[in-house]
Amino acid sequence: MELASKHRTTFVSLNEPEEVDALADVAAQARAALDPLVELYQQALAHQQQQQPARAVACYEQAMDSLLMRQLGLHTEQSDADSDASTSTSGSEETEDDDEDDGDDDEDDDDGDGNSDSSMNKDGQDTGDAANAPPLAVSDTAQTSNTGAPMEHDIVMQEAAPDAGEESDGESPAARPSTSRRSSMASQRSVASGRQKQKKMSAATEQAIMAFIENTKELRRMRDQLQFLVLTNFARLLAMPSVAWTDLPRALTYTSKAVTLDAANTAVWCQLARMARQCSKPSLMLHAYEQGLLTRMLPASYDAHRAHSWPSMLESLADTWPERVATLSPYGWECLLGLCQALFERGDIHRCQQLMAPILDVYPDVQIDAQLRGYIDRARAIRREAEKQLCQLDATWMVGRSSASMESQPETTGNAVLRVFVMTTNDSIQSVL
């Protein structure tokens, strides 16, 4: 009776108009929170397909400022503080350069953060920062900040060259760098303003939106997929070598977060291992290759086995190892060969040989490091020779076992052969390393 009363109370409470309206409002906001991230990801993907990585980076930067991505904890207040500090420093440098180039005592309005909101031309007319900015090579679908101004990456990375017949309004080439800086500073201020508007949403509202998404299966699945795709694709762009936006530590952080969203994805484990190698993190690289290989070896029960150590997993797979290797995907082979190379570099020769020796018996043409193959070939040759000698000793013992003098000889000789095998193997290891 008490339970029924509780259910009736809950039923009446949920039908109160105020709570129904509040729940509907949260549901609408939760669905609306997904739309900007979907749009930004689609635009970034289109730029990547059109071989325009700089514009894709700009879209991903905006995506990282969205509510769903900020909930991952990757966008910290420190990054905002660093951005504001760099904006203030650049603004002061731009003011000094303008004073030196123009030689005039023009007075600019200070917006309180050390940046000039507008600039005056020689006739005393207020042209503003946007008027002096060069034309942008942006598509019709280019994203803007909450204030309507283009994002800073669109300006800094995608400035279009002026047409040959376009007049320069009497500006000298020496004055153009300061003009570009003014347009960049205007865009940075607009980005900061947009972030402040996003932060005005109360923490309680954000928590209600995220809780609704978490408790709705369809929205939760869409959120996880969007976060995963944004992180992995953005990390690949940040890992590009020798470009303006290269940031390997940031790429490594995003990829490490992505594998927590989809731990059974072998491709992301490979991506994490490659970035860990670039960042000189051998332990993380080894772990990534191990986990990536386990996702292919134990796809059905990966979540149940991931807590176990790799050696225990290898022992359980020893009997069917060659057969399982035959079913590996290209990413699985990358994990296997990368793991063997990582073990060899660390000096874990035993585990490396455990992995590769059975595979080379079935697939002798596998492409591996020449130094690693040389060691494995020498170790296998020494082992075969030792086994051959032991077989000969065993045959001699069987023939002469009736003689008392021969009964103790095979054991002594066999031990000597084993000692030679161990010493020779150790010498081979030292010569390789």
UniProtKB/TrEMBL annotation:
<feature type="compositionally biased region" description="Low complexity">
    <location>
        <begin position="172"/>
        <end position="193"/>
    </location>
</feature>
<feature type="compositionally biased region" description="Acidic residues">
    <location>
        <begin position="93"/>
        <end position="114"/>
    </location>
</feature>
<dbReference type="InterPro" id="IPR011990">
    <property type="entry name" value="TPR-like_helical_dom_sf"/>
</dbReference>
<protein>
    <submittedName>
        <fullName>Uncharacterized protein</fullName>
    </submittedName>
</protein>
<feature type="region of interest" description="Disordered">
    <location>
        <begin position="75"/>
        <end position="203"/>
    </location>
</feature>
